[in-house]
Amino acid sequence: MSEHNTDKGEALVERARAEIRAQAAALRDRPLLDRATPPVAGDASGARVERARLHYRIGELTDAHHHAFVEQAFQALLKRAPSAAEGDTQLALLAAGATKAEVLGNLRWSPEGRAVGVRVAGLAPRYAMAKLRRVPLLGYLVDIPLNLAALPALARHQRASDAMSAAGDAAAAQATRTLAAQVGTISRDTARAHQRLDDLHAFAHELDLARDELARRFDAVDSQLRARIHALEDATGTLTGRFDEFEFIRQRFYAINHWMHQLTGAFARIESAATQGEHERRREAWPVAQACIDADPARAARNAAWADALRARSGPDALVLTGACGADWVASIAARELRVVFADADAPFAAIERTDRIDVEAVDTFDALRRCADASLDGAAFIAMSSALRARPLLDWLLEARRALKPGTPLLLGAAHEPGAIVDALTRPQPSIAVDLSSWPGSLFAAAGFVEAQRIDAADGTPAWLMRRATA
Amino acid sequence: MRIAILVAVLGEHDAVGTDAREMAAALDRRGHDVRMFATSGRDVESPEALDEVIADPQALLIYHFAFGWPPGVDALRRARCRRIVRYHNVTPPEFFAPWSDEYERSCRAGRDEIATIAALGCESYLCDSPFNAGDFLSAGVPRERIAVLAPFNRLDRLIEAPAELSLLDEGGRGATWLAVGRLAPNKAHLDLFEAFACHLDRCQADARLLIVGSEDARLERYNAAVRERIHVLRLEPHIHWLRDVDEGTLKAAYLVADALVSLSRHEGFCVPLAEAMALGVPVVALDAGAQAWTLGGAGLVWDSADPALIAASVERLHADAALRSELRERGFARVARGFSPQRLDQGLADVVEALR
Q1: Is 0.80 topped by the overall pTM?
Q2: Which CATH class is domain B156-338?
């Protein structure tokens, strides 16, 4: 039997070890617990166990009855609550006629009770007597005289018990009546509760209906929203395509812009080269032109005559614009107390020095006239019209001169061979326009806003017109 | 027979002191003239007075060897009487290397003395456990001179003592772990805390850990590491320290515990295991040192200190009444078979008689 028990125990421990290993492997998969501060022991089992108390009087432990007695006995002697099976065992003992002292003694001198070591005054002799009564024959022999001796006390207990029973019956009847009244109240409360329950069921049904309606509405809204979302997705797709096209066009535009920039640069370089070439040609031709005019014996007399005529029509210090002429003409009019603005693209070649009466601008003569403010000039003299008309028609010259001249101031137009015209003839493939001032009628200038136009041809026959800007 | 029991320091409650005192009492009961010698302790004589006894060839010297102590070796060397070396084991210095230079030196000196004492050719080497006996067998002592006798103890007194339960009323529904032993690196309290934290986190959030044992001021670095680990693992609310306890409080600690947990890495015997078995407390232990032998199958012994394994063991013991009962019965049987005063008295008497 003992060997059998040993084998069972060995199997139990081995099975437990295997299960513990499996449990340990699974332990890490368990969720983390919220740690709690350990609660006091009394909270777990209701009544608090007086663990520190180790001395009792037997009366303290025998006053209670039935369940309360067993509970108190365990807590006092074993310092813990009884399990359900342990409680049932002790109650069965009491039901079989065991005394409370016997139950207490069994607990106190059990291995567990010995380990706790509680001392109960008066328990030992009562327990010994109870055990003695359990001995066959001897217990009976002891029990008889003891019970006989106790008969008066038992009779007194019986009478007291009868009185207590009667009192208990009366109390029970009163309690029954009270209970009946309470049952009636509870019945009425129950009926009301049933009615409330029915109401709640109805309300719950209405809630169900409302919930279904709400669900239908949600479905409709959901469908609409989905349709809107699809439409937006389509529009977004279209826009995305447009954006792609736009991006393509933008890239092409940038490419074309780049090409145009390159082309403009190329043209600029070509023009620059052409301008530079013409500039060089004119520089080379200028000494030849200078030599030509130096060889003209009538030039000095002609310039002097025309300068006198111009001075006669202008006041002292009058500001006169001239161009497309030689340096000697500029010096000639400056010498007659006139202030001269010499404007000619070939000015660097003419070698005319700036003085307080002579201002030099290296720009085209017509451009200089056009930049002058309205009625800002006191006179103008263009003595090489054959060269001037090559760049602009006569009408342009007359209109710009009328605008820039002050009313009443003179305009001199001549047909002399000046260096600019000679250089033009030398460097350009087309010949200069042949200007025949003598064929122009005076009415032409009157129509253009000039009055008192008169011929002041030079002694060598070079034609020239002198006129005055009309005042109105 | 005149018998001199020599101990370096005779404590009141430590394992070596208890063994020496109870051994003296047992020999005294058998009519021997027993005197105790130690550098400190209650009712002892100075080791300087030892020569009077050990010069007598008919006398017997019993030297309790637990750490390095050159005067003890000198006494064995000078003795003209018969000699018994009572060996409680010396903790390997490696355990203390990270924590205390002083302890490391002391333990290294003690381990070195094993070979010296083995070479002295004493008549008997009485070891606490087969694990301890292995040290002297390895040092060349003939097997016939080696005997195993568990240390004398005070289990009876502990069983009979009234438990002081008032300090422990705050127990809850969760499992109660118990650890008994001073704070020392080889006791592996750091492993214990990891396992207990695992139990709190995965098994029972309201479990608690009772630690019966004191800190050693010379191991302050280790003490600080213990405190740090407790703080890191947030165990403060769940740990109940019991320092310098009397027998009543120690018994109460055992009675309320669901399991004694010992993850010690090195034990020559481990008296708390015997106490737990005597009081019916299930044990969870690491298979290290002599612990498996001490338990003799009356506990859950594992070859790993895996926190999950230890936590699952305590959880199972807390929930499984049948397993608790089986281990309790085995523990009672183990104590009765190996550690009862009668058994120990007889075992010592056999050893002494063999030397006559």
Answers
A1: no
A2: alpha beta
